Amino acid sequence: MSADEEMNRVAAGYSTVSDKIRALAAAGHERADIARFLGKRYQHVRNVLTEDERLGRPMAAGKPAVSTRGAGVQEAPTAWREPALLGEGLFRLAFDQNGMVSLPQQVEQALGLHRGGVVIAELQGDRLVLLSTAESLRRAQALVRALVPGDDSLADSLIEDRRREVAKDSDG
């Protein structure tokens, strides 16, 4: 695989230039090569990486510093902004200074989410569970169903109400 193909592969999953820079640097590519590949100034690449270092997001020898913590869970470095897959369906997500969390594209797709949209979350003790669009709809429907007496259809009731109003208006 050529260097450009390798860089394309590494940068493919990222939407921002800064995230592409971080990923390419973590993969061991030199700053000058990253700048050429992305069509950016060397200074831009340097600024992104040195700012991460200044903020305490360490990189060791061009690769992310990875340590293990707990029962076989790998701790991704803070400079590595990709939400790292830790196991089947388990992710470590970066929580930035503004309280923002980015979801991996595969999570967005699995939950039926789209950029700029809304996701429903449920706090369950010390866990936050994100609900798919379909599950959110099912729960909303269940809430409404609980408020409707008997087995009445809301649509049928609305149609009947409208017919009565029309009949009343035409009689009077």
Structure description:
The chain folds into 2 domains: 58 residues, no CATH class; 70 residues, no CATH class. The chain is elongated. The protein has a two-stranded antiparallel sheet with strand order 1-2. It has 172 residues and is α+β, with helices and mostly antiparallel strands.
User: What is the C-alpha radius of gyration, as a whole number of Å?
Assistant: 25 Å
Overall number of domains: 2
Low-confidence stretches: 60-81
Q: From the helix content, strand content and strand pairing, which structural class follows? A: alpha+beta
Q: Provide the spatial order of strands within the biggest beta sheet.
A: 1-2
Largest sheet: 2 strands, antiparallel
Tell me the overall shape.
Answer: elongated
What's the overall average pLDDT, rounded?
78
Gist?
This protein has 172 residues and is an alpha+beta fold. It is built from 7 helices and 8 strands.
Tags for this model:
single chain; 172 residues; alpha+beta; 2 domains; two-stranded antiparallel ribbon; 7 helices; 8 strands; 47% helix; 16% strand
Spell out the blueprint of helices and strands.
Layout: H1 3-11, H2 17-26, H3 31-38, H4 42-54, E1 59-60, E2 63-64, E3 67-69, E4 73-75, E5 84-87, E6 90-92, H5 105-111, E7 120-124, E8 127-131, H6 133-147, H7 154-171
Antiparallel strand pairs: 1-2, 3-4, 5-6, 7-8
Helix pairs in contact: 2-3, 3-4
